[in-house]
Amino acid sequence: MPIQIPPPANGSTNKGADTELRVAVVGNPNAGKTTLFNALTGLRQKVGNYPGVTVDRKEGAFTFGKTAFRLIDLPGAYSLTATSDDERIVRDMLLGLLGDESPGDIVLAVVDAANLDRELFIVTQILDLEIPTVVALTMNDLATGQGRRVDPKHLQQHLGIPVVEVVAPHNKGITDLKQALLDVAGQPAAAPPWSIGDKVLGAVDTLADELQKHHPGAANTRRQLAVQLLLYPDLEHPLMSLPGIADLATKLRGGLEGEGVEWRQAEAQGRYKWISEAAGGARDAARDYRPNLSDRVDQVLTHPVWGLVVFIAVMAVVFQSIFTWAGPLMDGIDSFFGWLGGLIEGAMPAGPLRGLIVDGVLAGVGGVLIFLPQILLLFLFIAILEDVGYMARAAFLMNRHMRRAGLHGRSFIPMLSGFACSIPGIMAARTIPDRRDKLVTMLVVPLISCSARLPVYALMIAAFIPALPIFGGFKHFTLQGVVLLTAYMISIAAAITMAFVFRKTLFRGETKPFLLELPSYKRPDWRTVLNAMWERGKLFVTQAGTIILAINIILWFLLTFPVDKAVTTEFSGQRTIAQANLSGTELTDRLAEIDSQESSALLRASFAGRLGRVIEPAIEPLGFDWRIGVGIIGSLAAREVFISTLAVIYGIGEEEDTPLVQKIQAEFGPLTGISIIIFFILSCQCLATVAVMRREAGGIKWALFLYGYMTILAYIASLVFYQAAIRIWPELI
Amino acid sequence: MSITVQWILVGLTLAAACAYLLRAFVLRPPGAPADPGCGTCPSCPAVEEMAQRIAEMGEEPAKD
Predict the structure, then answer these.
(1) pTM as predicted
(2) Nearest-angstrom CA–CA distance, A470 and A577
(3) Looking at residue A51, what is its pLDDT?
(4) How confident is the model at residue A475 (pLDDT cuts 50, 70, 90)?
(5) Number of domains observed in the structure of chain B
(6) Whose C-alpha in A21, A89, A508, A601 is 20 to 30 A from the C-alpha of A210?
(7) Quick one: DSSP state of residue A12?
(8) Which chain B residues are closer than 8 Å to A546 by Cβ?
(9) How far apart are alpha carbons A551 and A637 in whole angstroms?
């Protein structure tokens, strides 16, 4: 269905001018289109949306001499053969498919000199339409630095239209560009002499003749439309539904195949052949071009094998550093909370408030805040890798696997953001145009290990995985770092696998292609890096001081009350007997043993203990007891609560300030620890994620599906692991 | 500090914690964040920033 563009906004008309010319601004994404648009129009802009699609429509205006220009900043597009909403707008606008909206009087094609060949592709398509066109050549300084300076005069000669070099941020060339726009008005461009091949051209013309019956208009536009309908059968096209067109196109393609003509690549091959001659002639140093350092580095970093090796090595260093470097700071935080607890115990008489502060608040919140250094380090590394340009290379590497699994290229950023938090990741999926692609992304983003899972992994790894060196002499690389890396790799693999499953079952269909730009490498901007680290750290501390604090206060109450009188009476009797019969060290040990048993019995009789024991039969096959069950229930509000719950459980009734890691080592085996990690990798223990899913997916159905499938997946994975592991390594239970 | 005072303070703290959690998860006004900085605000800067980053990757962002 043609898309209607509203009439020009009042704010963008030019009063007092003799004539008004409409200029469509076209170019590849990142060609510098918006910067140039801003330089030409200043603040005289109006932003809106194209009806029916979520694509920005930006208009601006300027007056030059006595002529007013109204500029329409079209979305970035690589080709008029549209594959996305953005490109469809450009195609429909320039090919007259937008109802009453004309293609414009002039096209201003913005071309990045550093990527000249690729950027000229859409220019040749525009020239075929014989619309008056001006090329604004941007980023020639960058191309010069790469030894590929483009001579605008030579390019102008080859293209047959004005080419003006501009540096929009410095307003250089803007007046010349305005003059060129004025000069070119009413002078149609000449179609470039590229060749699609005689046989394909014959088929295109046959289809164009048929099209004339239904779609009157210029012959050159019809030919362009015929090229799209004939050579791109998989693309959505509004004219494909015209009577007889689809059948004729299929018949013509069959005829070409019968003659052995490779029609699929005909347009790209023909255009690029001509472009390479035009661009080659226009480049001053084309023959002297050598790959620069960035290109050479990219040959390794984006290589299917070596790129993956480097990626895993980089991640291994990151995760190992999280353990090695954070250790002293974590010990410091632990000691601080221990000291604070001791201070309060010394200053306050025993009672419920002291219990709440020491066993509930300090043990719980302190138990979570210990992990702040690890969170800060993780985000320091992610921010550095992103700022130097490495993450774009990682996206390129992952895109290959993600595409195979049916994930859209735009899914990478939501998934990358999932390492921080699933919620903005799910919200970023808004930018994916196709609903199926969007839903698949939203359903798998929560599988990516968010920062709230890191404390759970780190605690279990510290408790059960020895810090054994794994590369001989490299004592800094230990098994702990490898296990943490593995946990993250499992989460990525799980997300990609589930995307594949969803695309094969619930959301069948083609995944649209995605063009990825690799930015130049640069030194990290430390302000950006530190800011990213600060923001995550602030969020973590805020959560610890709000949600986690509130939950711990309630959990402490639920774990402390009611106090079972029968239990206290029984253990009081045991103390009396011990004091009557034992003395010295024996008495001290026996009393400590009685205290511990009493705490355990009181916990089991508490509100939370009773609840935990209700669910215990369901989680026992996973290696979990009722205490872990209580932690899992509490962690629904925030995953970190799992840690604080364990800290509260093991803090209540404890006289000694033993680190949580040691308490856990004394209670569980390594297999339970790993089973907990697996459960947390795959489960959706986050109510906020479920709530955001409900809002973004437009209903409770997908939110419940997300929670349900992840919980089942986590349960089955932990069950399979634990049941297999206790049979293989019974000594590790 | 007497045990009675401790009990009163514990009760008040528990009530405050319950009120906070109810407000954060159940009784929050439409559009308000579930908890500070979690990204659930309608105009979340984290999401805006991501839209920008997606644009820089190779395609223009399409905003809802």
Answers:
(1) 0.64
(2) 52
(3) 44
(4) low
(5) 1
(6) A89
(7) G
(8) 20, 24, 35-36
(9) 8
CA torsion angle for A407, A412, A414, A420 (degrees, to 10)? 130
Which structural domain, as residue segments, surrounds residue A611? Answer: 547-732
Which pLDDT does position A701 carry in this prediction? 92
| 8 Å CB contact of B34 and A29 | no
Helix segments in A606-699, DSSP class H = 607-619, 626-634, 641-651, 660-667, 670-682, 687-697
Is the complex ipTM more than 0.85?
Answer: no
Pick among A53, A427, A556, A563 to test the B interface (most B CBs inside 10 A) = A427
Percent of chain A with pLDDT over 90: 26
3-class secondary structure, A54: coil
Q: Assess if residue A542 is contained within a domain.
A: no
Give mean pLDDT, residues A441-458.
92
Query: How many domains is chain A partitioned into structurally?
Result: 4
Is A712 domain-assigned?
yes
Q: How far is CA A715 from CA A162, A669, A721, in A?
A: 65, 19, 10
Q: Chain B: nearest CA to A590, how far in angstroms? A: 29
Q: Which domain holds residue B9?
A: 3-57
> What's the rounded Cα separation, in Å, for the pair A366 and A690?
27
Q: How far apart are CA A441 and CA A437, in angstroms?
A: 6
Query: Does residue A534 form part of some domain?
Result: no
β-bridge partners, A25: A73, A108
Look at B39 and A543 and tell me if their CB atoms are within 8 Å.
no
pLDDT at B33 over 60: no
Whether A69 shows a pLDDT value over 70: the answer reads yes
Q: Count of CB atoms within 10 A of residue A592's CB? A: 12
